[in-house]
Amino acid sequence: MEELIIPFFLKYPLLSAKSYEFEKWCKIIQLLRSQSHIGKTLAARDAFLDIAKLCSDLNSKRNNPSKEIRAEVIIEWLESLSGVPSIEAKAELQARIRKAIKI
Fold first, then answer.
1. Cα–Cα distance for residue pair 98/92, rounded to 1 Å
2. Most-buried pick from 7, 35, 60, 71 (CB within 10 A)?
């Protein structure tokens, strides 16, 4: 997919505000391909945090309160981590997200 989409839009750039969205999307793809977000280090956490922030900013002009709330909870949780989260901590995060979205 990325072998087709990215080269196409680099060859034929978008001329609207979507070009900014495309640049963010390319950064996300680059971070995912590097797999720097995988691991048990704070650097991996920081890379995942970068991905989360970029994702939360994608299509920001659309009104999607659930996405905004979910992104805020995840980013806050990632920033609070000082080590590798346990399975229980991840389950608590999921519960926090579900609770926050229902409000």
1. 10
2. 71
